[in-house]
Amino acid sequence: MKIHRNLPDSPYYIKSYQELEEGRISLKLHGPSHDSNYSQSFILHQDFLLALPEVQDLSQLNEAVIEKMAQRVPQILLIGTGKMQLMLQGESLQKFRSFIDKQIGIEIMKTEAAAKTYNILAQEGRDVMAILLLGPSS
């Protein structure tokens, strides 16, 4: 399903969302030089894309990577948790303490909703970052 209408003024935006067999998700991204399909989790910001091939769910997200993300100080962090919305609890919540301490908003939703929201906020010129989980267990 195509998910963009107006294109954001940034090098990266999400063009489409597709559910694949075995519970996986595929996102088509527009990048600075070409379009690419992703079926592995990644972090997306207007200025960069960081693939997370080993990450299936939030528990596998490295705290050092999260800390580097927080140093960029986006206005908002979107977390797409896959086909089902999951909440941050316990250890997962503690991993994002640096965002909370810097008063960076965190929104958790299904990956499809996070992809749409990312494009809308980027189009509005907001400094948005997204963690989009695409694995079968997310």
Describe the structure.
- By secondary structure, the protein is α/β, with parallel strands linked by helices.
- It has four helices and eight strands; from the N terminus they run βββββαβααβαβ.
- The strands form two sheets. It has a five-stranded mixed sheet with strand order 5-4-8-6-7, covered by helices on one side. A three-stranded antiparallel sheet has the order 1-2-3, with helices on one face.
- A hairpin with a 2-residue loop joins strand 4 and strand 5.
- The two termini are 20 Å apart.
What secondary-structure arrangement, pairings included, does this model have?
Layout: E1 13-19, E2 25-30, E3 35-38, E4 42-45, E5 48-51, H1 63-71, E6 76-80, H2 90-95, H3 97-101, E7 105-109, H4 111-123, E8 128-132
Parallel strand pairs: 6-7, 6-8
Antiparallel strand pairs: 1-2, 2-3, 4-5, 4-8
Q: Which fold does the CATH topology refer to?
A: Hypothetical Protein Mth938, Chain: A
Fraction of helical residues = 10-25%
| Lateral arrangement of strands in the main beta sheet | 5-4-8-6-7
Overall average residue pLDDT: 83
Continuous helix count? 4
Rg over CA atoms:
14 Å
Strand content: 25-35%
Q: What do we call the CATH homologous superfamily?
A: MTH938-like
**Which regions have little confidence, pLDDT < 50, spanning 5+ residues?**
none
Shape: globular
The structural class is alpha/beta
Brief rundown of the structure:
With 138 residues, the protein is α/β, with parallel strands linked by helices. It has four helices and eight strands; from the N terminus they run βββββαβααβαβ.
